[in-house]
Design a protein that fits this description.
Elements: H1 2-11, E1 18-20, E2 30-37, E3 49-52, E4 57-62, E5 67-72, E6 78-82, E7 88-94, E8 99-104, E9 109-114, E10 119-125, E11 130-136, E12 141-146, E13 151-156, E14 161-167, E15 172-178, E16 183-188, E17 193-198, E18 204-209, E19 216-222, E20 227-232, E21 237-242, E22 247-253, E23 262-264, E24 269-274, E25 278-286, E26 289-297, E27 305-307, E28 314-321, E29 324-334
Parallel strand pairs: 1-26
Antiparallel strand pairs: 2-29, 3-4, 4-5, 5-6, 7-8, 8-9, 9-10, 11-12, 12-13, 13-14, 15-16, 16-17, 17-18, 19-20, 20-21, 21-22, 23-24, 24-25, 25-26, 27-28, 28-29
């Protein structure tokens, strides 16, 4: 661990991206347009959210309530609730099967959800604390970061069997699928690295060191420009990673308590919600030029975000607002020049 920290400090000097200062008196990047009450008990922690763009749906995981909400993006109505997902953290959507796969920390299972009936039809045992979950469509497999077990479980969605367990010398954070390269990238948050997994062989082919980062957990991709954006909760930094050269090229200070990251490819905006009550917003000018916009004030405890690639709306889930317990979805629209 000490050697890794020393290496990171030395490599920090290699950052090459140009970090552009924000313009003076910049307008707010987002404006609130709606609030939607969700069915679950107020004051209970939410975890991740995922958007089904083709189906115009938002899946919201309510960890504290042990259920998932399906929200219509056309009218912001709650189309249904999936129960029986104890301490659910994340979901992966498998559109060709019309299913969700949920990572259930409460009983260390992966729930298979039939979206036609919104019921759990199967439970797949997995290792300790299933957290992030990602579907690699080209391989027909779901990748689960079992954080405390320090493994990634690989599940074949045709058989619902775990076909491989990949072990690491670190707790595992959010996995992300790169369809261009055919890789899954997984945060190794104890050693400040990203593991690169080939989805066809499930072999770990490389590890990317993250100098200047401590405790990388959340991550988003710009697949077209070959960039990753990893949130480092240990030192409140976002790093920009060149996926082809496999090195950090930039970093930004963000708020405390980061967890999830999302990216609007069309607008070039990176969003990082932080539980200290800030939403960090980084504007991408091109692959190597970025600038921090003014962070948005959100409710304390907010740590998940979802970006609609069609409308560019930004969704966050609140459990506390104005000192009061709530269960609420807040919707923002981007403000652009």
């Amino acid at each position: 661990m000490q050697l890794n920290r020393l290496r990171a400090a030395i490599l920090a000097a290699l950052v090459t991206a140009v970090l552009v200062p924000p313009p003076a008196n910049a307008a707010p990047a987002l404006r609130k347009v709606a609030e939607v009450d969700l069915p679950g008990p107020p004051g209970q922690r939410f975890d991740y959210m995922r958007i089904d763009d083709a189906g115009r749906r938002l899946f919201v995981t309510h960890l504290g309530a042990g259920q998932i909400y399906v929200v219509s993006l056309s009218d912001l109505s709650v189309a249904g609730t999936v129960a029986g997902t104890p301490r659910v953290e994340d979901v992966a959507h498998v559109p060709e099967l019309n299913r969700l796969y949920s990572s259930n920390w409460g009983d260390n299972t992966i729930g298979v959800v039939d979206l036609a009936t919104l019921t759990v039809v199967e439970r797949i045992p997995t290792a300790n604390k299933p957290d992030g979950i990602e579907y690699a469509a080209a391989a027909g497999k779901v990748y689960v970061s079992n954080e405390l077990a320090r493994v990634v479980s690989v599940i074949d969605v045709r058989s619902n069997q775990t076909v491989k367990t990949i072990r690491f010398p670190s707790e595992t954070g959010m996995p992300r699928y790169d369809a261009v390269a055919g890789k899954v990238y997984v945060n190794l948050q104890d050693v400040d690295m990203i593991a690169v997994i080939d989805v066809h062989t499930d072999a770990v082919e490389a590890e990317i060191a993250l100098p200047g980062c401590n405790g990388n957990h959340g991550m988003a991709f710009d697949v077209a420009k070959r960039r990753a954006f990893a949130a480092c909760a240990g030192n409140n930094v976002l790093v920009v990673v060149d996926l082809d050269r496999r090195q950090v090229i930039g970093r930004f200070n963000i708020g405390r308590g980061s967890d999830f990251v999302d990216f609007d490819a069309a607008l070039g905006r990176i969003y990082v919600p932080c539980s200290d009550g800030t939403l960090a917003i980084i504007q991408q000018e091109d692959a190597d030029h970025y600038r921090a916009l003014d962070p948005l004030a959100v409710s304390p405890g907010v740590h998940t975000v979802a970006v609609d690639p069609t409308t560019h709306r930004v969704y966050v889930a609140e459990q506390i607002a104005g000192g009061r317990a709530v269960a609420r979805l807040v919707v923002y629209e981007p403000v652009t020049p």
